[in-house]
Amino acid sequence: MIELTVNGVKHTLDVEADTPLLWVVRDFLNLKGSKFGCGAGLCGACTMHLNGMPIRTCITPVAAAAGQNITTIEGVGSPDNLSTVQQAWIDNNVPQCGYCQSGQIMAATALLRDNPTPSDQDIDNAMSGNICRCGTYPRIKKAIKQAAGNLSAERNSDLFKEVTYG
């Protein structure tokens, strides 16, 4: 049995310790926002946060996340209560096919939490390894800059909106 805390909710699961965290979250917890892209931790589509740090969950065994805090894209906001980053994504028409976007948003959210006023180089470094097959990189950068500006203006706001799961 492995205990996980995902988006603030504790779960006890009977899964093999070496099962990738991505599959546990998708198949056992039915949170489908994070995607499988490459299976080698190279594309970023599976990005979630482990104790606030972005990780590639397609190569992270669930045992490595036991007893720690995991945040998925579903924990960042909701359709009725978007995070600042998610709203910037919409404002800038970032997604085309949308497949990589949960991983992109998770990486951008971590960046802005740690560096609320990133330079172009900071953005490039933080987003490196998150592949967008549609090539929306200029819109991604523009959305990150907008979110940074909005967060700076709000000062007291959170990157994560409180989401209730039941």
Listing every helix as H and every strand as E from the N terminus to the C terminus, the arrangement reads: EEHEEEHHHH
| Tally of helical runs | 5
Class by SSE composition: alpha+beta
Oligomeric state of the chains in view: single chain
Q: In angstroms, what separates the terminal alpha carbons? A: 22 Å
How much of the residues is beta strand, in percent?
5-15%
Computed CA radius of gyration, to the nearest angstrom: 15 Å
Number of strands: 5
Based on Cα principal axes, name the global outline: globular
What do the pLDDT scores average to?
91
Poorly predicted runs: 162-166
Describe the strand arrangement of the main beta sheet, using strand numbers: 2-1-5-3-4
Taking the sheet with the most strands, its summary is: 5 strands, mixed
DSSP helix fraction = 25-40%
List keywords for this structure.
single chain; disordered C terminus; alpha+beta; 13% strand
What does this structure look like?
The protein is α+β, with helices and mostly antiparallel strands and 166 residues long. Helices cover 34% and strands 13% of the residues. It has helices spanning 21-28, 84-91, 101-114, 120-127, 137-154, and strands at residues 2-6, 9-13, 47-50, 53-56, 69-71. It has a five-stranded mixed beta sheet with strand order 2-1-5-3-4, sandwiched between helices. Helix 2 (84-91) crosses helix 5 and helix 3 crosses helix 4 (120-127). It starts with a strand and ends in a 12-residue tail after the last helix. The model is unreliable at 162-166 (pLDDT under 50).
Furnish the topology, listing elements before pairings.
Blueprint: E1 2-6, E2 9-13, H1 21-28, E3 47-50, E4 53-56, E5 69-71, H2 84-91, H3 101-114, H4 120-127, H5 137-154
Parallel strand pairs: 1-5
Antiparallel strand pairs: 1-2, 3-4, 3-5
Helix pairs in contact: 2-5, 3-4
